[in-house]
Amino acid sequence: MNRNRSASLQRRAESLIPGGVDSPVRSFRAVGGNPPWFERGSGAYLYDVDGNRYLDCIASWGALLFGHAHPAVTAAITAAAARGSSFGASCPGELELADAVVRALPAAAGIEMLRFVNSGTEATMSAVRLARGFTGREGVLKFSGAYHGHADLFLVEAGSGVATLGLATSAGVPAGAVFNTHTVPYNDLAAVEAVLEQQRGTMAAIIVEPVAGNMGCVPPAPDFLPGLRALATRHGALLIFDEVMTGFRLARGGASERYGIRPDLVTLGKILGGGLPVAAYGGRRDLMNLIAPLGPVYQAGTLSGNPLAMAAGLASLELAAAPGVYEGLEAWGLEIEQGLVQAIADTGASARVQRVGSMLTVFFCAPPVANFADARASDTRAFARFHARMLEQGILWPPSQFEAAFFGTAHGPAEAAALLAAARSALGEG
Predict the structure, then answer these.
(1) For a FRET experiment, which of 118, 177, 227, 290 has its CA 20 to 30 Å from that of 352?
(2) Catalytic site residue 270?
């Protein structure tokens, strides 16, 4: 597969942009080779600058549940753009999208009010600030390998791009910024309880990806989320579900609905914006009323709630409300999971598949992956070989063992057949 123009653009980019990329995992440093540069997307496919077509299993890192350039989303964005891209003031789209979110998530997530921001990092950072303002405490408990954005307080044993690059944390983060951040293994309730007991009365929040997606797809153990809910309540800490990735993906009401757990605060992103930069944090009215201008917890943003993002988000949530969307995604995901499991068995590859809904990872290890330590025990060289072979067959797989693959409604029978055939071939080459 010829990718000469992509390689040329990458070389030029490296003289202007650090690493030639605006987000580290795009660099392909974990898997080798040059990353493709894309000029358009349609449905389940991306097309690079050299004219190659790829079946997209990244979906803008989970943001595109309905594929690239969905007519309803592009029409909404086009109409909004014709009226103006940003007002620096309130627009009706903010109210419409807020109402759609509250109607979609109330019973599951307990959202009564929310505030729009521009990125998942802003949402998680703001949610923690709100938790600290509400409780009067400073401690935050997170899980090893979980990535909640690049705010200073979260860059302690973070997953995703940080794990891919082999960094335990980030340079430039003051020791004081992470002094009150406590990290324990995912799926380990005993470790959570031990920290809460040791730090009794100091913990403002427990923040968790209800399904981990930044150490690969790692589902919660059956007792994990209920246990977190009980422990947070007992110790007076707020439970924050970081659903930037899982919100509107695992169910219309996200992981909160899928697992039947009601957090105190929820962060949303990705699908919420239909591919445009938007995120949100929300929760009970008494919590959200602490945010300026009503209360003392300050947060602001010039482009927050901009009309383009609101239009794309509203169109996406309307698509998500259609009958059968999530049943179809579950059935397609199960077909891929079973096909990959069979291919692994037939080829004798040392690998395993973990899936929740339309999130999936092929881990190159034999035992189940329940936390970041398990994920890091994977054979990343074997993963890099798998990735390269998939790419040569026109399958764009996440370029990191520690990133989940994402699928959507644009993936159908033809895409399933192509994906499984390519994976069987890639796994069989050892």
Answers:
(1) 227
(2) yes
